[in-house]
Amino acid sequence: MGHDVTFSSNGHETAGYFAPAPGGGPGVLVIQEYWGLVPHIREVCDRFAAAGFSALAADLYHGDVATEPDEAGKLMMALNLAHAGADMSSAVDFLQAAPEVTGDKVGVIGFCMGGALALMVATQRPDAVAACAPYYGVVGWLEPQPDWAAMTAVVRGHVADRDEFFTVEKFRELEAQLTALGKDVSFTVHEGTDHAFFNDTRPEVYAPAASAAAWADTLELFRTTLG
Question: pTM of this prediction?
Answer without folding.
Answer: 0.96
